[in-house]
Amino acid sequence: MMSVSDPVDRVFEGGCGALVFGLGYVGLALVAAYLRKGLRVYGVDKNLDKIKALHLRSFRFLERNIEEAIYNGLEKGMLKLTTDSLEFSESACVKVITVPVYLDWLTKEIDYSSLVEVGESVGSGLKKKDLVILESSVPPGTTEGVLKPVLERVSGLVAGRDFYLAYSPERIYVGHSLEDIEVNYPKIVSGINEVSAELAAKFYSRISSKGVIRLSSIKAAEFSKLAEGVYRDVNIALSNELAMLSEVLGVNYYEVREAANSQPYCHLHLPGPGVGGPCIPIYPYFIINIATRRGFIPQLLLLARNINEFMPYEIVKRFEKFLRTHGVKVSSSRIGVLGVAFRGDTDDTRLSPTHDIIALLRARGCRNIVAHDPLVIKDEVLDQLGVPLTQDLRVALEDRDAIIVLTKHTEYSKLTTGDIMRLSKNPDILIYDSVNVITNNNNYTRIEKLGITT
After folding, report:
1. Number of domains making up the chain
2. Count of alpha carbons within 13 angstroms of residue 41, beta-carbon side
3. The pLDDT of residue 253
C-alpha cells in the first residue's frame, strides 16, 4: 500500500503539480485531461512562439474541448507554461514526458537525441519521491535502456529507490484525443519496479474511466503500443492490395469490404494514397531496427511498408492513365490537389503521401499545381516544391483541368461532382478520388476512384 504522502495522492490533493514536457498534440491533450480532473499543471515546450500563442489565445486548436480546458486553466491560474524546464520542477511531483523518439527517414536509424535532451532536463530538477512517466511511443527497451540512465546520471538519484519511473504509452487519435484519454480506452501502464507500476496505475485510474491495463514489464508496454500501429500498417497494406486487385477483377472494393467485414473476425481497413504521419510509418521501423539487431527479420512488416510506401507511385500511375484515357497529358495539365494532411480532419502533414504525389507529378513535367487543405495553413514541403497552398476551395478548383483527392477530410465528404463542376467552371473536369470521399450526384462519367472500376 502507498503512504498518504505518495506523489499521486499529493498531486490530486493539490500539494504539488503535474509537469508535462512537450506540448504537441499528445502533450496538450494530457494537459487538458489533467486540468479537467482538477490538477495543477505545468507545461514545458522549447518553442517560445507556441508558448506565446497559448498565452495570447491565438494558438490554433483542432479540438474545442482541449482549447477550452487549456484556456480555462490559464485563466484560473491552474496552468502555467514555460520554456524553462526547471522553472516549475520544484513544484511538480509527477513529471510526464511526451517528446518523440525520431527516425531518420533516409537511413531508418533511430534518433534518441530529443528524448535524451528532455531526460537531462527532467533529471536536472528531479527530486526524491517524484514520479516520472514516459508517454512517447518508443522502441522496446527505451525507458530502461535510454531514459533511466540519463535520469540517474543527471539527478544522482536511483530509479525505483529514490524516484519512481513508469511507462504509459499515449493512445490518442487527433480529433478526439481527450475522449481517448478519458473514456474511450484503458490506459496501459508498467513500471521500473512494483511501486512505480502501482503509482502509475493509481494515477491513471483517476484519469481514465476505462481504468488501466497493467503489464508485467516496461518492455511489454512499449511493444504493445508499437503492435497497435503495426497492425494498422499491415492491414492498410492488405486493403491497398485488395483495392488494386478489385480494379483488375472489375469489382468494387468498398462493396467487397462491407460484405467481408460483416463477419466479426474480419476488419479490413480503407485503402488510400499511402500511409503518413508521425506514427504508423515509423513504428514498423522501430521494430525492424530492434529486431534485425537481434537476428530476426520481420518479413511481413517489411512487405507492408514496401506496399504502403509505393502507393503514391501507384496513385500517380492511375491518375496519369486516367488523364491519358481522356486525351489529357499530365505535363500540360492544370491540376488541383485536394488534401495535404496525412489523413482526414487533422492539420498534420508529416510524411504525408501528398508530398510524394506532388513531387512525382512535378517530375512528370506538371508545373501548374494548386494544393488545397481546409486545415493546413502552411507546409514547408509544398514551399520547397514551389506549389501554392490555399484554404479557398474555389481558388483550388477554378480553371483546373483535373483534380486529385488525397485526404478524407469531412469537408470533402460534402462535395459533389456537381459542386466541383460549378466551382471549377469546367463541365469536363477530370476527378480522381483516391479516398472515395466525393459524391457523384449527377452520374458524372469523368470521375475515377481507387478500388472501383468504371
Report:
1. 2
2. 29
3. 98
What are the pLDDT digits (tens) for 113-144?
999 999 999 999 999 999 999 999 999 999 99
Largest Cα–Cα distance of the chain, in whole Å?
A: 77
Q: What is the pLDDT of residue 5?
A: 59
Tell me, yes or no, if the pTM score tops 0.90. Answer: yes
**Are 280 and 163 part of one and the same domain?**
no
Asked whether residue 2 is assigned to any structural domain, the reply reads no
| Nearest alpha carbon to residue 123 among 148, 87, 144 | 148
Judgement on whether residues 119 and 252 belong to the same structural domain of the protein: no
Residues 36 and 182 in one domain: yes
Q: What is the average per-residue pLDDT within 357-372?
A: 97
* Residues 123, 146: Cα–Cα separation, whole Å: 13
Cell of residue 142, nine digits:
527505451
Residue at 451 is within a domain:
yes
Domain containing residue 274: 217-454
Q: Please, what's the b/e burial string for 368-405 (b: 16 or more CB within 10 A of its CB; e: otherwise)?
A: ebbbbbbbbeebebbeeeebebeeebeebbeebbbbbb
Q: Are residues 305 and 225 in the same domain?
A: yes
- The arithmetic mean of pLDDT across residues 51-61, rounded, is 95
